[in-house]
Design brief:
CATH class: Alpha Beta
Strand content: 25-35%
Number of helices: 6
CATH superfamily: Ribosomal protein L5
Number of domains: 1
Strand order of the largest sheet: 2-3-1-5-4
Oligomer: single chain
Largest sheet: 5 strands, antiparallel
Radius of gyration: 15 Å
Distance between the termini: 15 Å
Shape: globular
Length: 145
């Protein structure tokens, strides 16, 4: 299999006061290994407590996670993402995706969601040569076929 052109993957998810941070972390572990996850306690609007979980993988682990994410997406989801690619891909080659936190916790599986609904935010940093917006778009189109 051809090496995926993914340099790095980062992710972030929030646990709000109404949620159990342990369950949110468990959902995040559907994507990232426990040892890669950091935890930050923060204050939200109006003094609410928020726990932020973040993780980052590079090189082979990043490519493996990208393969897992792409394999979890249906052809319809990939097609919908391709139609809105300009909303998800920046000029530096970062592909922004969102996934369902509740589904990850309940089913221990990955489920892509439209950008306004996803609770788990994932960013794939892509490789292209030369590194420009047109080549990053071509890389995404190939990944999502």
């Amino acid at each position: 299999m051809e090496k995926l052109p993914v340099r790095e993957i980062s992710g972030e998810v929030f646990a709000y006061e109404s949620e159990y941070p342990e369950k949110v972390q468990q959902a995040f572990e559907t994507f990232f290994p426990k040892k890669a996850i950091s935890r930050l306690n923060s204050d939200g609007a109006f003094g609410t407590k928020i726990v932020i979980f973040r993780a980052k993988l590079a090189k082979k682990p990043a490519r493996e996670l990208a393969e897992k994410i792409l394999a979890s997406m249906t052809s319809g989801e990939k097609e919908a993402l391709l139609k809105k690619l300009d909303l998800h891909l920046d000029e530096e080659g970062s592909l922004y995706l969102r996934f369902d936190k509740q589904f990850a916790f309940e089913k221990n599986k990955i489920k892509f969601t439209p950008e306004e609904e996803g609770n788990i935010q994932i960013v794939l940093s892509l490789e292209a040569f030369p590194a420009n917006a047109q080549n990053f778009k071509a890389v995404c189109q190939k990944l999502l076929q």
